[in-house]
Write a structure and sequence with these properties.
With 311 residues, this protein is of the alpha/beta class. The protein contains 11 helices and 15 strands. Strand 10 (205-208), helix 6 and strand 11 form a beta-alpha-beta unit.
């Protein structure tokens, strides 16, 4: 297993700890992964989510990942704030993007203190803000909508309400990515709301639900593009995608690369799949069943920092 740091696997991340977590009714219409909490359970659900984020942060820190933890006290009514990867992303060379969000409640998640921290702690050259495109109903939800190959400069993107081709083209021009757009369907035939639910691109491998890409020719092109970039393609089933096996992120820890994913996701992988992953990254499962009620998992909880530290 390599201990060399990879541009694909950040060594620092931003996470948000919610104090009033609840699955967001506003996003349920196009997120088939969500579960609804009963009203009387609300306080217990919020407390459980708080504990899960706390434990996840501690586990990542124990692995040597630098975690910038921000609190969401719930004053702005931001039920999905635990998923900061959707409203901003960072890129080598000092570039930051702020994104346009599909659901009005999610637009309140954008925080100037997070951006100011990045500018203070890391070398930031420019911040490009796409949030004004919300007025034109044009949305692109960050590293939920796009899964980046930072090495080969490809932005894999599943077409959805949350990933508009016009904004994708604009982003790709600004940030020097090749956009690779495709249509998807889950086991029930519904479009998958975010690309990072069905695929994860790591340094030496990619986890991907090939069967979720509806056009077989396009699926073959995606596989070829991944293999050309040196990735071993590990195909996930629809059932594994439903268990969030695709919603993982490779990080650089103290002792080499790790793959952070949920315990549920890890349990869904076969022994052979785990062995293939662990040739280049150690599996680090995090227990986040309450957070997963909101339709996202570990990848959604982590905004990777691909910037150079100032110190």
């Amino acid at each position: 297993m390599s201990t060399i740091r990879s541009i694909q696997a950040p060594a620092a991340v931003v996470m948000i700890r919610p104090h009033q977590f609840t699955p967001n009714a506003e996003t349920a219409s196009d997120n088939a992964f969500q579960k609804v909490a009963a009203r009387e359970e609300a306080q217990a659900v919020a407390e459980a989510a708080y504990r899960e984020v706390t434990a996840a942060v501690e586990r990542l820190q124990a692995e040597g990942v630098r975690v910038h933890l921000f609190e969401d006290l719930g004053e702005r009514d931001t039920p999905d704030s635990v998923f900061p990867n959707n409203w901003f992303s960072t890129h080598p060379g000092g570039h930051v993007a702020i994104y346009s969000m599909y659901s009005p409640s999610r637009r309140r998640e954008r925080r100037s203190d997070v951006i100011e921290m990045l500018k203070t702690e890391y070398r930031v050259q420019d911040v490009i803000d796409y949030s004004g495109l919300e007025q034109d109903n044009l949305f692109l939800e960050g590293t939920g909508a796009m899964v980046f190959d930072h090495l080969a400069r490809v932005a894999y993107t599943a077409r959805s309400n949350r990933a508009d081709p016009v904004v994708l083209e604009r982003f790709s021009t600004h940030f020097n990515f090749e956009p690779m757009l495709f249509d998807t369907a889950d086991a029930a035939g519904l479009p998958i709301y975010h690309t990072n639910v069905l695929m994860c691109v790591a340094t030496e491998f990619a986890l991907i639900g090939m069967d979720a890409i509806t056009d077989p020719r396009r699926a073959a092109e995606v596989r070829t593009r991944l293999e050309e970039s040196g990735r071993e393609v590990i195909a996930l089933s629809h059932a594994q995608i439903a268990e969030f096996a695709g919603n993982a992120i490779e990080l650089s820890g103290r002792d080499g690369r790790i793959l952070a994913l949920s315990q549920r996701a890890c349990d869904s992988l076969t022994a052979e799949q785990k062995a293939r992953v662990e040739r280049s990254a150690r599996l680090v499962p995090l227990v986040v069943p309450t957070i997963e009620m909101a339709g996202g998992s570990v990848r959604c909880m982590i905004a990777g920092i691909h910037l150079s530290p100032r110190h």
